């Protein structure tokens, strides 16, 4: 929490990352890229208005930036089979594991507001 309050980058180690999508084209592209880049791909997310619940308060940030140096789908063959069976409107969970690197970072940018959580 100290690093967050000081605006410092938080470094960590990735064990597993799950993402969900219902876009078949996105999944196809992930499969193609994973087949071409077996050492992994880098992912970066910029998520607005994220909150942390801590000690009975909600702290809301402008944005959280998450970066993963190298990830790859956990089981590419299984992902391919799931894509084949996917119907319109289905949501598919893609599980990633570290590729060449397990390093990840998060940066919590500017506190928008803090408020107590009502029970």
Helix content range of the residues, please? 10-25%
Q: Describe the largest sheet.
A: 6 strands, antiparallel
Distance between the amino and carboxyl termini: 23 Å
Average the pLDDT over all residues and give the rounded result: 88
Q: Which sequence of SSEs, written as H and E, runs from N to C?
A: HEEHEEHEE
Number of helices: 3
Strand % is over 45%
Structural class: alpha+beta
Task: Please count the beta strands (DSSP E, at least 2 residues each).
Answer: 6
* CA gyration radius, whole angstroms: 17 Å
- Point out poorly predicted stretches: none
Spatial shape: globular
Number of separate structural domains = 1
Features:
119 residues, alpha+beta, six-stranded antiparallel β-sheet, 3 helices, 6 strands, 23% helix, globular
Description:
The protein is an alpha+beta fold. It has one domain (2-116). It has three helices and six strands; from the N terminus they run αββαββαββ. Strands 1, 2, 3, 4, 5 and 6 form a six-stranded antiparallel sheet that branches. Helix 2 (24-36) packs antiparallel against helix 3. The relative contact order is 0.31. The model has no long low-confidence stretch (mean pLDDT 88).
């Amino acid at each position: 929490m100290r690093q967050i309050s000081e605006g410092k980058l938080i470094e960590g180690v990735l064990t597993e990352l799950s993402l969900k999508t219902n876009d078949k084209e996105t999944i196809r592209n992930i499969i193609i890229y994973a087949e071409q880049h077996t050492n992994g791909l880098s992912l970066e997310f910029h998520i607005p208005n994220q909150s942390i619940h801590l000690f009975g308060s909600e702290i809301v940030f402008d944005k959280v930036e998450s970066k993963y140096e190298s990830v790859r789908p956990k089981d590419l063959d299984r992902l391919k089979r799931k894509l084949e069976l996917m119907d319109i409107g289905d949501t598919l969970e893609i599980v990633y594991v570290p590729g060449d690197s397990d390093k990840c970072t998060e940066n919590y940018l500017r506190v928008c507001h803090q408020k107590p959580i009502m029970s």
